[in-house]
Design goal:
Order of helices and strands: HHHHHHHHHHHHH
Helix content: 55-70%
Distance between the termini: 26 Å
Largest sheet: none
Number of strands: 0
Strand content: under 5%
């Protein structure tokens, strides 16, 4: 599946897109998604076109096929709403980051009888989104770079073919949520310009963990952070 960190394929024919949108709405109904959420999703899709629309449809199809579909759609709707609050919110929560948050809720950590919960729960996805919106610019740029490098060659010579970039992104976003209070911008961040503040130290911790786990398989990641 193409994601926002990679180039999307060309747009589908209009009739196929319309059919896919109708199928998504039907799946939302079957999943028990509230009418208000369905309406907001429909409005959002109508505002997209070309590769952006195709990427969004692929995400929703993936999410709706997951065992965590209802929770993940809740995260999708909430994070999408946050991204529309202001120009800054839109800049801090572009599609590729929103998709990482939603996939973190949708994709189960393991496909066993013990449960299918994602790496992120819905509340953590929303907290990570809010933290990204309000953290200092220097730390946001660092977070964005970590997310974009997920799965692209590890510090320990791990095989990229086995890497799970989505799982890496989910864990990076989880670590951001866990350090939410430390990552909020303060007057000290402005005066220090991002060097040696609580926010910078928190993001440096996340960066070190992300570097160590880069290009691990999903199984390795789950085992390491369970």
């Amino acid at each position: 599946m193409a994601d926002g960190f990679e180039a999307a394929k060309g747009p589908r024919p209009t009739n196929l897109v319309s059919q896919a949108q109708a199928q998504i709405d039907a799946a939302l109904v079957r999943t028990g998604v509230a009418d208000a959420e369905r309406a907001r999703i429909a409005v959002h899709l109508k505002g997209l076109s070309g590769a952006d629309l195709q990427r969004e449809i692929l995400l929703l199809q993936h999410v709706l096929a997951s065992p965590n579909a209802k929770r993940a759609i809740g995260a999708y709707d909430r994070v999408l709403s946050l991204s529309k609050e202001s120009p800054r919110a839109a800049q801090r929560l572009p599609p590729e980051i929103r998709h990482g948050l939603v996939r973190g809720v949708a994709d189960p950590r393991a496909t066993t009888t013990t449960g299918h919960e994602g790496i992120l729960v819905q509340a953590q996805a929303e907290l990570a989104a809010r933290t990204l919106m309000h953290m200092p610019q220097a730390q946001f740029e660092q977070a964005k770079a970590l997310l974009s490098r997920a799965g692209q060659g590890g510090a320990h010579g791990l095989n990229e073919a086995r890497a799970d970039a989505w799982a890496e992104r989910a864990y990076i976003l989880k670590f951001i949520a866990q350090r939410s209070e430390r990552l909020r911008a303060t007057p000290a961040d402005a005066s220090a310009r991002g060097s040696d503040t609580d926010a910078s130290r928190a993001m440096d911790e996340i960066s070190g963990i992300a570097d160590d786990m880069r290009a691990m398989s999903r199984t390795q990641l789950i085992r390491l952070h369970s």
